[in-house]
Amino acid sequence: MRILDWAAMSGDDRGALADRGAVVDVDSALGRTISGLVADVASRGDVAVCDALLEHDGVEVTPAGLQVSASEFEVAQSQVGDELRLAIQLMIANIRRFNEELLARRGSWQTEIAPGHVVGEKVGPIDSAAVFCPSGKASYPSVLAQVATAAVVAGVPDIIVIVPPVPGGDGEIDPAVLVVAAELGLDRVFRVNGPAGVAAAAVGTESIPACSKVLGPGSPPVALAQLEVRRRGTDTVVLGPSESLIVADASADVALLAADLLNEAEHGTDSTVLLVTPDSALIEAVSAEVERQTLDLPAERQEAVEAALGVNGGAIRVADLATAYDVANWFAPEHLQLAVADPVSAIDHITDAGEILVGQTTPLSAGNFVIGCPAALPTGGFAKRSSGINVEAYLKATSIGQLDAHALSQVATATIALAEHEGFPAHANAIRIRQH
Fold first, then answer.
1. Where are the alpha helices (DSSP H) in 253-362?
2. What pLDDT does 415 receive?
């Protein structure tokens, strides 16, 4: 595990750590390729989607086979065991409860700000959404649960699922993904190449309907496709590689710290994992424990850990906990765990994080799957200015204003003054005509 000293790090060193691949280069060769792919899908529709699936995923499918059939859903139900099924149901139930509570707090409202002067909002769902469920290094039914449950709770009337087929297969979709979709009542699932699927859901093809929003985390090619369709007018949220930061002090359990650091580190060689602490002895102990626990992981995961806790991340030694919290806010991680003596009080020191996991009885893996809080979270420092994907991502608000005759008279002079200053005589006349 790489060890850094915050006080000794130069501005360039800190900048390199903060970057962690936050910027997707749309002008790179890959960016230009993805831009061409999106244009191809917009031009040739289903045929282009099928060609991309064959070229990039090695799966041959006709346009008629892009949508998962009812019989595939039935087979998937029989392939998922009771233990996994119960886990899926618990996961969805907790995510649903979180989003239902959020929706209740974000409903329509009106208030009278002066006699006869009413303002408010009518809040409701967007008309359609495509949920992207990644399936590259592995299959991620939990991502579908996270992103799609929020859409269902929001009441989006038209929801589709786009998911790449299982790597190395003949086009089949992970049965657990189909069970999640079935539990949510989503029966329109399309097997597609990731970037081509994002493009298809944005522009529409013969088989895949165009949607107002395309949401879900993915690989760099998927992120580039999301940026390209956003440029073309489709709303989306770009999420990058996994990242986590743990603030710890001498009270933390070393074995648990190591386990939680490895939790996000095993995602991939593009992940970033940081331990921030003022305790040098703790760093040494955790470093040794990480090395020990890593030996139990498969070779591919060991390679990911080496990068995530090495060239990408590591342990940062700071002067005190106050500085540790400052570093955490500066980094604005996707996942933040507080492994300190008083984690509840420590929450007050955190302003920028995708999520805060309070204490070592709240492991990152529980946050990833079953706590119910959003797990599709802003990365690359975007936690400073955006939130995770929850029910609000699928809502829109229409403003409401109402004036009675008395309230209009109270704002008439100001309206005319502003209209005349900005050179809009018809605006002013629309008020004057009502004063006679």
1. 254-265, 280-294, 299-308, 321-331, 343-346
2. 97
Query: For 310-361, what is each residue's pLDDT tens digit?
Result: 999 999 999 999 999 999 999 999 999 999 999 999 999 999 999 999 999 9
Name all domains of the chain by residue range, CATH numbers in brackets: 3-22+241-363 (3.40.50.1980), 29-111+125-236 (3.40.50.1980), 404-435 (no CATH)
The pair phi, psi for residue 70, each rounded to 5°, is: -60, -35
What separation in angstroms does the CA of 160 have from each of 19, 175, 186, 325?
Answer: 33, 17, 7, 40
**CA–CA separation, 293 and 276 (whole Å):** 20
Whole-model pTM: value is 0.91
Question: Which residues carry out catalysis?
Answer: 334-335
Cα distance between the two ends of the chain: 78
Burial class (CB in 10 A: 0-12, 13-18, 19+), 104: exposed
Q: Residue 296 above 60 pLDDT?
A: yes
H or E segment and range at residue 158: strand 158-163
- Backbone torsions φ then ψ of 209, nearest 5 degrees: -75, 145
Is the Cβ–Cβ distance between 191 and 66 less than 8 Å?
Answer: yes
Helix 254-265 and helix 280-294: axis angle, to 10°? 60
